[in-house]
Write a structure and sequence with these properties.
six-stranded mixed beta sheet; CNF1/YfiH-like putative cysteine hydrolases; single chain; alpha/beta
Length: 227
């Protein structure tokens, strides 16, 4: 199964952060469980947020399903966090000192509501220099055309003119700006610039394929040897 492994960026032995490609539709729970198993993570400890483009972030301590939630945070090492994406940003977070970790679904609505900084506030523990973040594959500025009602809620420097009154929004840069403003160091943030819309053979894209689009899954957790 094809996936991206961001674990080395976090630099903490035993912590793993993965993003699937479009091999399967991971909106299907059994596929998500099998993916976790293939990565050596305990599928029975999966956390499943039922995402609604909110800024609700929940702290969890074990396997659960969370209605109306777009971000999860855990400190227990036997917990496995997951979110599904198909253009929105998967945001991985780890406090390398406390080992608190988070996984956030950040589309433009969640970004407008500052879900990233809200999650960060739950994780910093007066140690902003200890937190590292990965902004994973999502729709790029090259393809994210939005109307003025969306573009105008973000800094104008993060969009360029599109067709007519529309704009091309750089959502990844908006999220990065928010994290830095909230206290993260620039060199502690990795931005994966792959565009889910452009790379149709690698990623699902809701903007490209509409309701027939499947979902990728992002997963974060610890190997059993670390606890």
């Amino acid at each position: 199964m094809n996936y991206i492994d961001y674990s080395d960026f976090f630099g903490v032995e035993g912590f793993h952060a993965f993003m699937s490609n479009r091999d399967q539709d991971f909106a299907i729970l059994e596929h998500r469980k099998c993916f976790a198993d293939s990565l050596g993570l305990n599928q029975s400890q999966l956390v499943i947020p039922q995402q609604v483009h909110s800024n609700r972030v929940a702290r969890v301590s074990g396997s659960c399903t969370l209605p109306g939630t777009d971000g999860t945070i855990a400190q227990e090492k036997d917990v496995v966090l997951s979110i599904q994406v198909a253009d929105c940003i998967p945001l991985f977070l780890l406090n390398t000192a406390s080992h608190t970790f988070g996984l956030i679904h950040s589309g433009w609505r969640g970004t407008q509501l500052k879900i990233g900084p809200i999650a960060l506030q739950e994780m910093v523990h007066d140690q902003p220099g200890a937190v590292r973040a990965v902004i994973g594959p999502s729709i790029g500025q090259c393809c994210f055309e939005v109307g003025p009602e969306v573009a105008d809620v973000f800094d104008s420097s993060r969009s360029i003119p599109g067709n007519g009154d529309r704009h091309m929004l750089d959502l990844k840069s908006v999220v990065k700006d928010q994290l830095i403003e909230a206290g993260l160091q620039n060199n502690n943030i990795l931005v994966d610039n792959q565009c889910t819309f452009c790379e149709k053979d690698k990623y699902f894209s809701y903007r490209r394929d509409g309701d027939k689009a499947g979902r990728m899954v992002a997963i974060a957790g610890w190997s059993e040897t670390s606890f």
